[in-house]
Amino acid sequence: MWFIWKAQNDKVLNGKEILSPDTVCHATREEEEWRVAQIQSSLKAPTTVANEEVSNVSPFPRCQVDAFWVRNSSVFGGGFVFDLEPGSHTYGSVGMNQVSSPLHAEFNILLCAMRNSLQLGYTSMSFESDCLQLVKLINEEEDWPSLAS
What we know:
Number of domains: 2
Low-confidence stretches: none
CATH architecture of the largest domain: 2-Layer Sandwich
Mean pLDDT: 78
Strand content: 15-25%
Helix content: 40-55%
CATH topology of the largest domain: Nucleotidyltransferase, domain 5
Structural class: alpha+beta
Order of helices and strands: HHEEEHEH
Largest sheet: 4 strands, mixed
CATH superfamily of the largest domain: Ribonuclease H-like superfamily/Ribonuclease H
Radius of gyration: 18 Å
Shape: globular
CATH class of the largest domain: Alpha Beta
Distance between the termini: 39 Å
């Protein structure tokens, strides 16, 4: 799904047309490289960490969100992927009337994903975003823009 979003961004923002077979090929190649990297990592000797459990795997269920925003457009869009358990994915996409900034777009897509999560019956969900400013705002590491002095 990530490569579809990237191809869409290239088309709208840069006028670059990426054919669907090329997108699928690129995604397949990246996925294969990731799998090979995982195998190579497991072949290395395990590193011992004293009294600390290290995990880079996101918890389940989780939801990854991403928005698509263009200045001077009448609409914005976005999507989300629910990973409900290993190997189980549910996808959603949304188009809405334009908002004032990419941050607002990301926040709206997150809210939409949260509503959908509740509609699916999930009251506990881990949400992930590539919008660092949104993550910092939610984690209270940064002041909300309208509240900043």
